[in-house]
Amino acid sequence: MTATMHTPATQDSNAVFPMTPRGPLSAELMTLLSSAPDGTGAGDSLALSVESALAAAESITRDEDVQLSLFVLYGLHYGSLGAVSAEWEWQPALVAARSALERAFESELRATITVPVLPEPTRDAVAQALSILTSAESGPSLSRYVAAKATREQLGEFLIQRSVYTLREADPHSWAIPRLTGRVKAALVEIQTDEYGGGRVTRMHSEIFATTMRSFGLESRYGHYLPEVPAITLASLNVMSMFGLNRRLRGAIVGHLAAFEMTSSIPNGLYARGFRRLGYGTEVTAYFDEHVAADAVHEQIAAHDLAGALAEDEPGLLGDILFGAAACLVVDGWAGAHMLDAWSAGRSSLRAEQR
Ligand SMILES: [Fe+2]
Ligand SMILES: [Fe+2]
């Protein structure tokens, strides 16, 4: 069964970007990146705009201008911004802007997120602490709602919100591979090998998700729905990119992946059930079905061989491993709550002005 009820996202007249700016900072960045670097330097103006955007943001995590700007800056490294010149990637003004935004984002997260009491830095104690952290109930469940109640339109929104990460699935955590060594690196590579399909493109999780989107009646081109995706959803990807791209935060990206894998298997079974309830077949549910089995294995590797072993090898990273895990649960929880709140109020969870 396919559905085509979702109106395609609006495309900005600016051909370089598939989305419109959401404030002065993202506007300045997009204008700058629409041309090739000319060496005249945009540092002072951009630094001032970053400062003003941070001062104007009530919450860095939920601010549309700041989160879109971070998304665009990370896009330079992923190559997910279409026609933007690759020459921009390491321009000092952009690296400085990204770094200033990240410091503010990271401090807000550290000030907001409660990290559990630290266990002993051993494989088993860390795995157990992560297991306790990830099994705690934290508010209403998006997966139970999807399984039991979501409408066809809400299932489409769910796929769109998820697509910002899932069409690039595994990439943010892969930045950590060269930043780790020995058995910890081997554990991360073991997980990522499955995420990338073990060498078969049709088994890559991002490709399976693209098939899910198309079979549901949605576009699967990366960025197509960006104009409709709110800051909190961009934040859930940006937090992974920030942890992955900063070597000092390698404990946090490992903790993030551990929590991600440890909370994946059961919810994915519920998501699959929600799509089946409305008559969708395996061409749509394959992505979720795959994760029920794969992540039951990944969660063991992630808890013991990845996070636990890293804590043993580098005990100084223990706090960040737990912080990264807690950040994954909290920020993804906020993104899920955003969808549930909108739906329970009879609204769309996508950005209204773009629809
Ligand atoms: Fe996956
Ligand atoms: Fe996985």
Describe the 3D structure.
The two termini are 24 Å apart. Helix 6 packs parallel to helix 13 (265-277). The longest helix has 32 residues, at 282-313. This protein has helices at residues 24-33, 43-56, 64-78, 92-112, 123-135, 142-148, 152-166, 171-174, 182-195, 205-216, 231-245, 250-262, 265-277, 282-313, 318-344. With 355 residues, it is mostly helical. 63% of the residues lie in helices and 0% in strands. Residues 195, 261, 294-295, 298 line the site of one fe (ii) ion (FE2). One fe (ii) ion (FE2) binds at residues 169, 195, 205, 291.
The largest sheet, given as strand count, sense and whether it forms a barrel, is: none
Write the element-wise H/E pattern from the N-terminal end onward: HHHHHHHHHHHHHHH
Strand content: under 5%
Share in helix: 55-70%
The coarse silhouette is globular
Low-confidence stretches: 10-14
Terminal CA distance? 24 Å
Mean pLDDT: 93
Number of extended strands? 0
Ligand inventory reads: fe (ii) ion
Structural class, from secondary structure content? mainly alpha
Count of separate DSSP helical elements: 15
What's the Cα radius of gyration? 20 Å
